[in-house]
Amino acid sequence: MFNIIYCELLKLKKSHFYLTILFINLVIPIFFLLILIKRLKGISEYIYQFEQMSFMFINIPILCLISAYIFSREFSLKTIQTLFCYPISRTKIFISKIITTIIVTTVIMFTQFIMFILIGLVYFHTLISSRILFLQARVYLYCIFTQLLIIMIAVFFAMIFKNTIIPLIFAVLISAANLFIISLCSISKISTVGNVLNENLNYIPSCYSLVILKNSYNIIHSKTLTMSSNSLLGVPSIIICIFVIVLELFICNLYYKNCNIK
User: Fold this and answer.
1) Is residue 119 within 8 Å of residue 31, measured between CB atoms?
2) Is 38 helix (H, G, I), strand (E, B) or coil?
3) Rounded CA gap, 110 and 107, in Å?
């Protein structure tokens, strides 16, 4: 299985996807900082705004596109029959591709983590405290976990439609929906719908990144007073996320094992 994962990573390297990843992770944060530079009140505000932009709008299309590419490449190049002729079960191939997707997701998120630290150091001329640094490391780990829920849907679409277009459209729609939900939640005090959404974000899987960021922001600003409330994501949300991811993995693997290769 290790060899399959290595081959998948080599395919990504030859496709120059890593250049796109580097460009997005390097250029967009700097562009974002230049636009909002006058509105940022401090490093904690910068962290929240930067992560909200990354987790809710940028990462979803990027990660869905890359994961869709990993699963649809052999279909689009008509090499899927050759792949399935190898003396390896389809389940092992599927698992290897999932692991590759997780590796790429982790690399992207880790690069963003390093970028926001460096930009914060350069612009604010201050070291990020160990408390905030440790908290943000947890935020990124939680978000990697919750992003898998959306990525698996993109993978399923990639296997069905055998291209990256539909998964990318799906990702853009999710990002647009998140923007709409954030807008409603921001006016929750004067909007009944916004107030209802704000109280039920823990049960909307596509918004878990927003829940994590809000809890992180509250912790940084000491709005949470007890250790029990310092959870980035509630137990019910974690259970929902695990259940949905396991279900998605089962359905995707079942389809991959029985998909038509003609």
Assistant:
1) no
2) coil
3) 5
Instruction: Write the pLDDT tens digit of every residue in 77-129.
Output: 777 877 777 778 889 999 999 999 999 888 888 888 887 777 777 776 666 77
Non-local (6+) Cβ contacts of 145 within 8 A are 241
**Using CA atoms, how far apart are residues 36 and 130, in angstroms rounded to an integer?**
25
The closest alpha carbon to 45, from 116, 139, 102, 115, belongs to 116
Residue 7 gets the label, from left (phi > 0), alpha (psi -120 to 50) or beta, of alpha
- CA quadruple 14, 19, 25, 26: dihedral, nearest 10: 150
pTM score of the predicted model: 0.86
Burial class (CB in 10 A: 0-12, 13-18, 19+), 228: exposed
Q: Where do the domains of the chain lie? A: 2-258
Contact 116, 25 (CB under 8 A): no
How far apart (Å, rounded) are the C-alpha atoms in residues 241 and 50?
24
Task: Return the ∠ at Cα 125 (arms to 119 and 128), rounded to 5°.
Answer: 70
| Other Cβ atoms closer than 10 A to 149 | 19
The residue written with tokens 């120059």 in the block is 16
